[in-house]
Amino acid sequence: MIAIILILLSSSSNMFVCGETWEPSWSKEAAKEAEKVAAIECSGHGRAYLDGIVLNGHQPLCECNPCYAGPNCSQFISNCSANAGSGDPYFLEPFWMERPEKSGILVSGWHRMGYTYSDGSYISEMLVKHIKKLHQLVGNVVTDGRFVVFGGGSTQLLNAAVYAYSPDSSLQSPAKVVATAPYYPVYRTQTQLFNSRDNRYEGDTSIWKQNASSVNATFIEFVTSPNNPDGKLTKQILNGSNVKTINDLAYYWPHFTAIPSPADQDLIIFTISKVTGHAGTRFGWAIIKDEGVYEKMLSYLDSNTMGISREAQLRALKLLDVVLEGDGKQLFKFAYSTMKNRWTKLKEIFSKSKRFSLQKLSPEYCTFFKRSRDPTPAYAWVKCEREEDENCYEILKAAKIDGRGGSLYSAEDRYVRLSLIRSQDDFDILINYLTKLIDQE
Amino acid sequence: MIAIILILLSSSSNMFVCGETWEPSWSKEAAKEAEKVAAIECSGHGRAYLDGIVLNGHQPLCECNPCYAGPNCSQFISNCSANAGSGDPYFLEPFWMERPEKSGILVSGWHRMGYTYSDGSYISEMLVKHIKKLHQLVGNVVTDGRFVVFGGGSTQLLNAAVYAYSPDSSLQSPAKVVATAPYYPVYRTQTQLFNSRDNRYEGDTSIWKQNASSVNATFIEFVTSPNNPDGKLTKQILNGSNVKTINDLAYYWPHFTAIPSPADQDLIIFTISKVTGHAGTRFGWAIIKDEGVYEKMLSYLDSNTMGISREAQLRALKLLDVVLEGDGKQLFKFAYSTMKNRWTKLKEIFSKSKRFSLQKLSPEYCTFFKRSRDPTPAYAWVKCEREEDENCYEILKAAKIDGRGGSLYSAEDRYVRLSLIRSQDDFDILINYLTKLIDQE
Predict the structure, then answer these.
(1) How many other C-beta atoms can be found within 10 angstroms of the C-beta atom of residue A283?
(2) CATH classification (class only), B125-323
(3) Where is the Alliinase EGF-like domain (chains A, B) (predicted)?
(4) What are the domain boundaries of chain A?
(5) Which residues 277-296 on chain A approach chain B with CB closer than 8 angstroms?
(6) Which of A18, A63, A110 comes nearest B17 by C-beta?
(7) What are the per-10-residue average pLDDT scores of chain A (441 residues)?
(8) CB < 8 Å from B in window 311-340 of A
(9) Does domain A343-439 have CATH number 2.40.50.100?
């Protein structure tokens, strides 16, 4: 009897105390290493990464958020300026930290060593499927019958698109590349750096408004919707059969704007940076109608980098797996909720100001959330209203707010772009200084 | 007494039956998923990957090696041609499969979401350190005091270097880009695709040999050593203060060539594809002497893609961790041993032939292996010796050997490049057909 009890007890403790049956074999080291680094405490004001700097100690250093310092980022630097410059999408980090189980990916030592996928291309077929599903779910782009090309961020695809729309022969005039102020400066600086004989940056779209169709050259018009920096939904300006548009819809997601209808233009570009928040992954995609344009963009990607990292594509696949789970709305609800709260706070502060104003934003019906809603753009496009306040960037800088001056976007310097998509730490510091500044009026 | 025994037994079964103490928590799903896919049997003639096509079943399909087919790649297609075309470095795959524990990396859902590392750059400082260590260990490049830039494969760095060496102003003549036949066609096709006003592909280096220094323009000479396709160690041809060289040392590793001395030129480019075998990662680096050239290349990388994938850099770091372990020679011994065996077999077969010949290869002293050794290049550069055999590619193709014709490398079509760095399956099939072909003479 005692023997039976002993045996039962020993067996039961195996099942109930040892836990579930699966245990890692070869993956253990990688899993352990990742959990160890994730457990490094950075006071909630920083992060340690697997590839962070390792000094004399044996674990990577905490990398602190702006205005925080110290070995575990617990020291707040009191007179430190708010970082409201770049669009690093850290506002989405909490979403991923709440889902560690589902969002990690273990890349084996032998993962995809070859140059191509099994179909001979540089493009993951499973990832294309996921992207089309994502767009169908959100309803922001028509994807039926379209071709898809991947690039290193939308950045690489912008020039690939300019190349694809430019003439093939030197017998034709170079294409004229235009953008409408205020616009994302890379459209101009990138085109100028590459300095191709087949195209040339030709200034603001408005110059060509009246006579584009009568010019003997192709126009390549950048249309950004929502626009960066001011968040407005835009349409192309030039008309004519010689006008091609590159539609940069990086921000056309429910977290930033209503989705009135699915976009349907011939060439549309997206980036994972502004949907899941993974800017460091360098992954963007173009949705293309015309097969000839698609083939030209593939040639460009082949020549430039022979496609993009297999790891970036694998990671994007895993992240989109998580996004598409269930009703596929969790990420967008989280992101929209954060942006809405931030805009509510911002509008409240600016409502007290006569000196500074925000861009005007009108509500629109959103087919994703199925109701009318205000835009909640990634950036505040602040205007210094006083006539003498010509350099808004300097005025805000003196008030410890580091934004980006309007002239960077080919607008007047009485405008400043403030990033609202960084971490909660960055946003809190920004709100603090804005409150102080406006209280002084 | 019985109670004590019971307690002891319960506790001991926890320790000895449950196994070691560490168990994964949030990393479990990623680890389990990776092990599951790795366990998919593809008969040793294919591989299943985490992002492979998933049909009605619940696991990714086996992706079969050339000439193998079926759901688990067990069917050999008997009249299928040998794939001896591209340089997919599968010959290194067994090295990584033998080290699954050390070579995997688990990327968390929140890994490096921002645009930059903590120093504001796109370049992982830890990875730069590893690369310098690697070069010191192998002794193939001088890295002291040099700048390092990363790119999407060496591919992206080639054009970044052409850009960096080209004039900044349209007042100067475009730089003349040259390469020496037989050469890797991308130097020409890439320069032509980008078609920058600041440079132009100007033909074979030999045309300019006599008068380069008297021409009022910069020459940008591509020097590939060992050369692709013929594996020879080369030096620059043109002389003059107006001559800049881009030194593509992708194959300058002990698996392919003796290392007589560390390379010391002003701009040297490498790719992880040809050292660890991870061509799909799209990771290359340039080692640069001049700070101005370094800054220009950084601008190019910024404009083109805003740096490269953080996942690619993390993966490269992990892989180099493994390479640098112990005496740091394991990978090179493995790789050299494979290449040596393959060349021994190849030379044996070709020794019986009067119709076909291999490139002449002379032994050289290697500072890495500390002895004289024959080159073991990545490619055989086969020549059809009979006068009437003008198209060697077609002759080999008819004999079921699919290589690359000499004209692709700007050489005569009586040459064919055969890839010797693919999988053992590919090499065995190649040897089989070569043996048959030469036996027929």
Answers:
(1) 28
(2) alpha beta
(3) 25-80
(4) 15-103, 125-323, 343-439
(5) 277-283
(6) A18
(7) 60 51 94 97 97 87 97 96 98 98 98 98 98 98 98 98 95 96 98 98 95 94 98 96 97 98 98 98 98 98 98 98 97 98 98 98 96 97 97 98 98 98 98 98 90
(8) 311-315, 317-319, 322
(9) no
